[in-house]
Amino acid sequence: MATPAPAKVAVIYYSSTGTNAALAKEIANTAEQAGAEVRLRRATELAPPAAIESNAAWAANVRATADIPEAAPEDVEWADAVIFGSPTRFGNVTSQLKQFIDQLGGLWAEGKLADKVYSGFTSSATLHGGQESTLLALYNTVHHFGGILVAPGYTAASKFVDGNPYGTSYPLSLGASPGPGALAAVAHQARRAVMAAARIRPLPLTTRHIKEPAGTSAGHHAVAGVPATGPEEERYGYELPAV
Ligand SMILES: Cc1cc2nc3c(=O)[nH]c(=O)nc-3n(C[C@H](O)[C@H](O)[C@H](O)COP(=O)(O)O)c2cc1C
C-alpha cells in the first residue's frame, strides 16, 4: 500500500508581544514531529512602524519573527488543517488576524474553505479576560467556512492544567512566557489537529461544482443581489456518496 501523503497544517497567528508567536512555534514544531508538512505564517501588522517602535516589546517581537513569512490566502487553500492564533483583545480576535481572515471571501465563494480541520489558540492578560469568548468568536467563522472544528476538549491531562476545552489559552498573569503547562496543551492540540486531518482527508467530501434546480438559491440571490446563472444555477456543493 502506498504511504499516504503527510497532512498539511497551516499555523496562522497574530502576536504583538510574542506570546502567541511562542505558542504558534510550539504548534508548528509539534505538528512537524507528528509527520505533518507545516507552514508557520503570521498575519500582517496593521500599525505604522512608528507605533510599533514606540513599544519595546512589540518592536522586539516584530524583529524576532521577521523571518516568519506573512500569511496569504493560498496558505489556507493549501492546508488540510488550519490552526489560528490571536491575542484576546476586548474579549475578541485581534483586527490583525481578522483582517487576514476577511481576505478569504474569494476562497469561501468557491467552496475551498470547507472540509478542512480548524482549531484555535489565544492568550490574554488575565485568567478570565475573555479567552473563551475570543475562541468562540473565531469559531463563528469556521461555521461559515463549512469547516470541521477540532477543539481539544478535555482529551489529555494537559487540558486539566490549562483548563480550556475550546482551545489552548495562556493568561499572562501566570508569567511573561507560556510555561510547560501551556506548551503541553498546545502540543496536544497540534497532534490532535494532525490526527483529525489525516483521518478526514481520505473522505470523499471534496466540494465540486454541481447543478441545482432553478430557484434553489433564489432567496440567496435576491438578498445578495447576485443574478441567477440560468435555468440551472451552478454553485458549489456536495455530491455525497450513497451510504
Ligand atoms: C487593545 C487591547 C485589548 C486587550 N484586551 C484584553 C482583554 O479583553 N482581556 C485580557 O485579559 N487581556 C487583554 N489584552 C491583553 C492581551 O491579551 C495580551 O497583551 C496578549 O495576550 C499578548 O499576546 P501577544 O504577546 O501574542 O501579543 C488586551 C490588549 C490590548 C492591546
Automatic annotation (TrEMBL):
GO molecular function, one term: FMN binding
Enzyme type, top EC level: oxidoreductase
Domain Flavodoxin-like: 9-194
Pfam families hit by this protein: FMN_red
Documented EC number(s): 1.6.5.2
InterPro entries: Flavodoxin/NO_synth, Flavoprotein-like_sf, Flavoprotein_WrbA-like, FMN_Rdtase-like_dom
A single Gene Ontology CC term: membrane
Keywords noted in UniProt: Oxidoreductase
Homology family: Belongs to the WrbA family.
Protein name per UniProt: NAD(P)H:quinone oxidoreductase
